[in-house]
UniProtKB/TrEMBL annotation:
Domain CUB intervals: 104-212, 273-347
CDD domains documented for this protein: CCP, CUB
Record-annotated Sushi domain positions: 43-102, 215-275
Classification via PROSITE patterns: CUB, SUSHI
Keywords in alphabetical order: Disulfide bond, Repeat, Sushi
Pfam families: CUB (PF00431), Sushi (PF00084)
Domain of life of the native organism: Eukaryota
Lineage of source species: Eukaryota, Metazoa, Chordata, Craniata, Vertebrata
Gene3D superfamilies (alphabetical): Complement Module, domain 1, Spermadhesin, CUB domain
The keyword Cytoplasm belongs to this UniProt entry's keyword annotation: no
Protein name: CUB and Sushi multiple domains 3
PANTHER family in alphabetical order: PROTEIN CBR-CLEC-78 (PTHR45656), SUSHI DOMAIN-CONTAINING PROTEIN (PTHR45656:SF15)
Keyword Cell inner membrane applies: no
SUPFAM superfamilies reported for this sequence: Complement control module/SCR domain, Spermadhesin, CUB domain
Length: 370
C-alpha cells in the first residue's frame, strides 16, 4: 500500500479492507527518532435504502462492496443499477441510489407483466401521448385486468387496440373514474395508447396482463377423396387441399387460420362436389363416392371442350332415391336430357359444353353416380 522513510511526514492513508499490516526495519548504522502514528477504524458506507417500488440486492457495505437494485414490474430503473462503497476519510457510495419510475410507453415481450400510467402511483402529467406495445409469439393473446383506473373523463383516455397503433382494430376506449372489466385481446400483438390533455391530472391506471394460448381452427379432416397438406391448425397457419384423380376441388385450395375470439378459417372448407372441367376426357363422381352421397347437396359441373367437339357421356353406374334426388344434364343450347332413377344410360352431346346439375333432398340414403 505504501513505503515511507526519511524525515517527511506522510499524507493521510486509508485502508481499503478491515486488516492492516505494518512492518519496520532498521540497519546497523544511524538511528533516528522513529515514528508516531495513530489509526482509526473507519465505518462502512451508510446502508442504502431500497428505492420506492424496487428492491436492493446485497447486505455488505464495507469498502469495495457492491450492491444492486431492481424495480418492481411496470417500473423502470433510472440511474445506476450497481453502486460501490468507496475508500476515503468519509465512506460513501460512488453513485446515488437509483429511482424506479413508471415510464410513458414501452415494448414488452414477457408472457406476463404490468402496465402503469406515467408517474404511478402519483398523478400522470399533462399533454402525454404514450404507447405500450405487447408482442408475443403467434398463437398467443393476452388477458388484461385493470386493478386501478382514474382519468379525467372524456379528455384523458386509454385505448386498447388489437394489432399495431397504425393499423390495429380498437377493442375499447376507457375514460373516467370507473375501473373497467377485464378483457381479452385475441392477437399476438396488442397496443395500448394513453392520451392526456393540458388540464386535470389523475392517478391513472394499473394493469396486469397474462398471455394465453389461442384455440386452434377446426380440423378440416377427413377430406373425402382428397388430401390435406399441413397439420398445424393454430392461428396464422395455412393448410392446402388436393383432390384425388377424377375429383374436382370447389372452393379455395388454401385456408389460413384467422385471429379472433373464436378460431375459424378465412374461407369455408372446400367441398368435393361439382366444378368446372375443361379436359378432353375425365370422370365425374357423385359427392362422397364410393360411399353414399350426403343429404342436402346441390352440385353443378360444367364440362367444356374446344369448339368443334361434342361430348360423349357414359354412365357406368346410376342409383339415387326416387323423386327427391336427381341429376339433370343440359346441352349447350339448353335443350336438356333429364335422367331420374335410371340404371345406365348413354348419350352424345353435339355442343362443346354441357351442364350437369345434381340435387339431393333430405331423406335419400343411397346413391352413387359416376
Amino acid at each position: 500500500m505504501s513505503q515511507r522513510n526519511g524525515t517527511t511526514i506522510p499524507q493521510l492513508l486509508n485502508s481499503t479492507s478491515n486488516n492492516l499490516f505494518l512492518t519496520f526495519q532498521s540497519d546497523i548504522s544511524v538511528s533516528s527518532a522513529g515514528f508516531h502514528l495513530e489509526y482509526t477504524g473507519l465505518d462502512s458506507c451508510p446502508e442504502p435504502l431500497p428505492p420506492s417500488n424496487g428492491q436492493r440486492v446485497g447486505d455488505r457495505y464495507t469498502v469495495g462492496d457492491m450492491v444492486s437494485f431492481q424495480c418492481d414490474q411496470g417500473f423502470s430503473l433510472q440511474g445506476n443499477a450497481y453502486i460501490t462503497c468507496m475508500p476515503g476519510p468519509v465512506r460513501r457510495w460512488n453513485y446515488p441510489v437509483p429511482l424506479c419510475i413508471a415510464q410513458c410507453g414501452g415494448s414488452m415481450t414477457d408472457f406476463s407483466s404490468v402496465i402503469l400510467s406515467p408517474g404511478f402511483p402519483g398523478n400522470y402529467q399533462s399533454s402525454l401521448d404514450c404507447t405500450w406495445r405487447v408482442q408475443l409469439p403467434i398463437g398467443f393473446g393476452i388477458h388484461l385486468q385493470f386493478l386501478n383506473f382514474s382519468t379525467e373523463p372524456v379528455h384523458d383516455y386509454l385505448e386498447v387496440r388489437s394489432g399495431t397503433l397504425e393499423t390495429g382494430t380498437v377493442i375499447d376506449r376507457f375514460s373516467g373514474p370507473m375501473v373497467p372489466s377485464s378483457l381479452f385481446s385475441t392477437t399476438h400483438e396488442t397496443t395500448l395508447f394513453f392520451h392526456s390533455d393540458y388540464s386535470q391530472n389523475k392517478p391513472g391506471f394499473h394493469i396486469v396482463y397474462q398471455a394465453y394460448e389461442l384455440q386452434r381452427c377446426p380440423d378440416p379432416r377427413p377430406f373425402q377423396n382428397g388430401i390435406v397438406i399441413g397439420q398445424d391448425y393454430s392461428v396464422g397457419m395455412t393448410v392446402s387441399f388436393e383432390c384425388l384423380p377424377g375429383y374436382t376441388l370447389l372452393g379455395e385450395p388454401s385456408l389460413t387460420c384467422l385471429h379472433g375470439v373464436s378460431r375459424n378459417w378465412n374461407h369455408p372448407i372446400p367441398p368435393l362436389c361439382g366444378g368446372n372441367i375443361t379436359s378432353m376426357n375425365g370422370t365425374i363422381y357423385s359427392p362422397g363416392h364410393p360411399a353414399e352421397y350426403p343429404h342436402f347437396q346441390d352440385c353443378m359441373w360444367t364440362v367444356r371442350v374446344p369448339p368443334g367437339y361434342g361430348i360423349y357421356i357414359n354412365f357406368s353406374l346410376f342409383e339415387t332415391e326416387k323423386e327427391f334426388d336427381f341429376l339433370e344434364i343440359f346441352d349447350g343450347d339448353c335443350v336438356f336430357l333429364f335422367y331420374m332413377w335410371v340404371s345406365i344410360k348413354v348419350c352424345i352431346q353435339t355442343y362443346n359444353h354441357t351442364l350437369l346439375l345434381f340435387k339431393v333432398e333430405f331423406g335419400g340414403i343411397v346413391g352413387q353416380i359416376y
